[in-house]
Write a structure and sequence with these properties.
The chain is built from 5 helices and 6 strands. It has 199 residues and is α/β, with parallel strands linked by helices. Strands 1, 2, 3, 4, 5 and 6 form a 6-stranded mixed β-sheet that branches. One of its GO terms (molecular function) is oxidoreductase activity.
Length: 199
């Protein structure tokens, strides 16, 4: 099985990113379940605004979309900004919106049978709200969500500590990340063996 992580930090590479750091930890847990994949930092690519599969004129989304369609699990990792997912994350959701009209020969969205998961970091409250926004978006276009489909870390409000700068990962975050990976992989394998029926 394969997983794709879309990291929605505002900072392109090689800037350090707490969202990228948490995505790496989730991918490492996926690997423990024999799931391989890659991390794509969306800000490194010219993903055009819009709600189409291909916005033309050098749009980088079609190539990222091909990676997504080849994966069994999609992880979206985002920071919290002003209580919301990043603008890059919102653009990813908008581009995923096109999947609701892309169907297979039996009329099912192409992402049916794929599992969605979320990773959130920030120095303010809002992880539950951000994950709820992403859960609804992923569900709307056809992804399935396992129990415990989010892992997150939120630092003390109005302080400067970043997740990537912690001396060690808090056990609550590590255990939540392990649960996310185990449940997402379990559901992905179930769906691979027993696809959703045509509607």
């Amino acid at each position: 099985m394969r997983a794709l992580a879309l990291v929605c930090t505002l900072n392109p590479s090689p800037a350090r990113s707490s969202s990228h750091h948490l995505a790496e930890q989730v991918m490492a847990e996926f690997a423990r379940h024999d799931v391989r994949g890659e991390i794509v930092r969306v800000a490194d690519h010219d993903v055009r605004p819009g709600v189409e599969v291909d916005m033309g004129d050098g749009d980088a989304w079609p190539a990222i979309r091909e990676k997504m369609l080849a994966a069994d699990i999609l992880l979206i990792a985002t920071p919290i900004w002003l209580g919301h997912p990043s603008s890059v994350c919102q653009r990813v959701l908008e581009r995923l919106n096109a999947e609701s009209s892309e169907t297979d020969d039996e009329g099912r969205p192409l992402v049916y049978g794929k599992v969605g998961a979320v990773a959130v970091v920030g120095n303010e409250d809002g992880a539950h709200k951000v994950s709820a926004d992403l859960f609804q978006g992923l569900d709307d276009v056809g992804f399935s969500l396992a129990p415990g489909a989010v892992t997150y870390w939120v630092g003390e409000a109005m302080r400067g500590t970043d997740y990537q700068d912690l001396d060690e990962t808090p056990e609550t975050v590590a255990s939540t990340t392990r649960t996310l990976a185990a449940n997402a992989v379990h559901l992905a394998r179930l769906l691979a063996d027993a696809p959703y029926p045509a509607s």
